[in-house]
């Protein structure tokens, strides 16, 4: 008797990191003190909208309420193929962190005038993650000083390049 064994095709797992959205203004407006990687609790239509690359971290920030971390202001537009089960675009989403990380954040935020700002959102091996930063707001003069420092460094690099090539400027 001949037995035929059938194997179902295994689903293809995503590997690596794929960026969804970045908050480019965060590094300009805040001094980054520490970063954390957090998972995000999402519903199905949100994940489908994110796979299309649609999300905005512009007004997003994180808060800690009753020992849980929440991401507020994140905009994920409604999924085009969704029906009445679609999600609310700006709903509050829970961030998934270890208890010791949450306790550490609570202590750091309570001590000084620091905040939690999302820097980027990405897929890591098929799971949605947020890079969360413990940050301190910059004053206007700090922003100007950073711009002046970057400009000076850029000029130094250019001058070194000119001297190596033998060009006088």
List the helices and strands and how they pair.
Elements: E1 17-22, H1 26-29, E2 30-40, H2 44-51, E3 61-65, E4 68-72, E5 93-96, H3 99-111, E6 114-124, E7 127-137, H4 140-165
Antiparallel strand pairs: 1-6, 2-5, 2-7, 3-4, 4-5, 6-7
Main sheet characteristics: 7 strands, antiparallel
The count of strands amounts to: 7
Mind telling me the CATH superfamily name of the largest domain?
Small protein B
Task: Tell the overall outline.
Answer: extended
Number of helices: 4
Provide the domain count.
2
Secondary-structure-based class equals: alpha+beta
* Gyration radius from CA atoms, angstroms: 22 Å
Strand order of the largest sheet: 1-6-7-2-5-4-3
CATH class of the largest domain: Mainly Beta
Listing every helix as H and every strand as E from the N terminus to the C terminus, the arrangement reads: EHEHEEEHEEH
Strand content: 25-35%
The oligomerization state is: single chain
Identify low-pLDDT runs.
Answer: none
Q: What is the CATH third-level topology name of the largest domain? A: Small Protein B, Chain: A
* Gap from first CA to last CA: 87 Å
